[in-house]
Amino acid sequence: MTTRDLWEETYSAVTVNKVRSGLTMLGIVIGIASVIALQAVGAGAQSSIQSSIQSLGANLVMVTPGAARTIGSTVSSGLGSAETLTPDDGTAIAALPDIAAVAQEVSGRYQVVYEGENTNVTVLGTTPDYLTVRNVAVGDGVFVTDTDVTNSNLVAVIGPTVLQTLFATSANASATPDMAIGATIRIKGTDFTVVGVTVAKGGSGFNNQDNMVYVPLTAAQHYLLGSSAYLTEVDIEAANANSMTTVQNEVTNLLLQRHNISNSAAADFTVLNQADIVSAASSVTGTFTTLLAAIAGISLLVGGIGIMNMMLTTVTERTREIGLRKAIGAKKKDITMQFLAESVTLTFTGGIAGIILGWLIAFGVSYFLGTATTVSVSSILLAFGVSAVIGIVFGYYPARRAASLSPIEALRYE
């Protein structure tokens, strides 16, 4: 049997009952599409998380009060509520080598009021170096200055989300920085004059830098917290990416010494490296994506079983045909190749349809839901590989069974 004859027979056999062939391929289509779409969503989420963390600052090392914990437990541990990190600690950290800038911070959520509008946001008391350390830019006006910190000036810099919330009106649906700069906002009963508006960075949640109000560190300590004895965070920009681990170790050793702690396991502070956070977040999203893809892959197994079932049914239906072919000289190899080709054709066709459907689902998620998705070449190659394996593995037994039929018994089959 020539290759041309083989594929002509395969095409005829697959298309003679289009509905049954389509339903048989459906499991493969759904499985491949699910795997590709979930991997695309997972890869997009991983990339988005990495970009969000890296946008917080370059070569960032963060020091927060409270007992040292693993990265996975910091979210729920109330980190920052302890009072173990002091301004003197921040000053000492700034004197260490391999450090480009240090920003001391205190923060809390407060009701911010302007005329008849109000919003509940994070108010951050900080120093001028915050701009450099946290990669924040002022679009209009100015940021907190050293003079503001020294004199506890009642000035504020607002994010673009705060700008729109407080200053947009029915007459001006979109507020402009000119409407805010020079205006007086009230935070915890104290009036602050708006002196600047930051550039939009995007983000969500409580740490969204677009939805923050920045005030001088000392003003926040005196008028909002009522105490200048502690900090809620110290952000450090390492001199370069290669020195981040060194800076982390130096800060840890310095604070252990200053707090008179001999056992690092009993530390009353936490030092986090930005690279470690990115790695941990990537690991979590990667594991989650793999789990979802594995669950979706179960449908591929179901689809393979469906193909085997169809091929076994086909062998039974075509028993007399097989007997006739063998009687006129067809070899076992020819019969095996014929049925194996039919199985592989079904799985490859289903695989191609699944790849297209998976890409369309990923595109739809990105377009309609605004969630970043990334369809990788590796996931497409994996889909083709899985299709080939399923076609061969689940088609081999029916093909061998067909080839093993006795010509005489097959011709007698009714």
3D architecture notes:
- Strand 6 (184-187) and strand 7 (190-198) form a beta hairpin.
- Helix 10 (274-317) runs parallel beside helix 13 (377-403).
- With 414 residues, the protein is of the alpha+beta class.
- The model is unreliable at 69-80 (pLDDT under 50).
- 55% of the residues lie in helices and 17% in strands.
- The chain has a six-stranded mixed barrel with strand order 2-3-8-5-7-6.
- The chain is elongated, with a radius of gyration of 33 Å.
- It is built from 14 helices and ten strands.
- The protein has helices at residues 3-15, 18-54, 87-94, 130-133, 146-151, 160-167, 177-180, 217-225, 244-258, 274-317, 319-327, 332-369, 377-403, 407-412, and strands at residues 60-65, 99-114, 117-126, 138-141, 155-158, 184-187, 190-198, 212-216, 233-238, 269-273.
In short:
With 414 residues, the protein is α+β, with helices and mostly antiparallel strands. The chain has 14 helices and ten strands. The longest helix has 44 residues, at 274-317.
Using brief descriptors, characterize the structure shown.
414 residues, 55% helix, elongated
